[in-house]
């Protein structure tokens, strides 16, 4: 589950702001339990436990099901990530561009794979040839198990500009047939044939519907990704606050008119769990692949 600091996330924060409910989450992380079992473990009445269960269910943190006369609870979420507002680096001027996820200029993918717009699928799922369909430019989501998509980035820097930092952000997850919250995947990022590093996606998420995911997209399919920012500085390359590699801004050939960004799941990856990219009008974040150049 991915949260932000908007009012939309308040329900989840309120559900977590209770020692009893945190205890329930810890118990459910070990096994499914009914209300009677939870009440015994917590030394509380069934009525109070039901109140706490309802709060956790409203926040989409757990799911409940009826089995006979019993109400069985289980965890729905195994990870929560909180996105804070983007930091602004006032010392630099910036150029910013946005690349639709379907506007790749080169690709090589293996099933499971596919593309879709905000209203319909493009071609037939698991047929790589549809990745060359002209309508791919309208894609708002794409996915593949192995291979890559490669994008061209326009370099807006002028001759007198000095590149100081580069940010590339996107919403991304693993790829599993339908979806799987626990499905690690090693996804490698390459810029201008320089490997920036590999990030391991934890899963292909469907525990809650994406905030922007269209109604026609079914509940059992992946719903959203994690918003990740690759930042290349004079000190190295990070993904969010984690070190990705020792590639620095000096390694980027800033004089080139266009740069190549490759997003790849290698055939020899330790965790070959695929890749899903979410664009505008899909997932949790209303953006495509965003590139920001900080310069003096």
From TrEMBL:
InterPro entries found in the cross-reference section: ArsR-like_HTH (IPR011991), HTH_ArsR_DNA-bd_dom (IPR001845), Metal_resp_trans_reg (IPR051011), UCP030050_HTH (IPR016943), WH-like_DNA-bd_sf (IPR036388), WH_DNA-bd_sf (IPR036390)
UniProt-listed Pfam families: HTH_5
SUPFAM superfamilies: Winged helix' DNA-binding domain
HTH arsR-type domain location: 1-95
Keywords, sorted A to Z: DNA-binding, Transcription, Transcription regulation
UniProt xrefs under Gene3D superfamilies: Winged helix-like DNA-binding domain superfamily/Winged helix DNA-binding domain
The keyword Lipoprotein is assigned to this record: no
Name under which the protein is recorded: Transcriptional regulator
Source species: Enterococcus ureasiticus
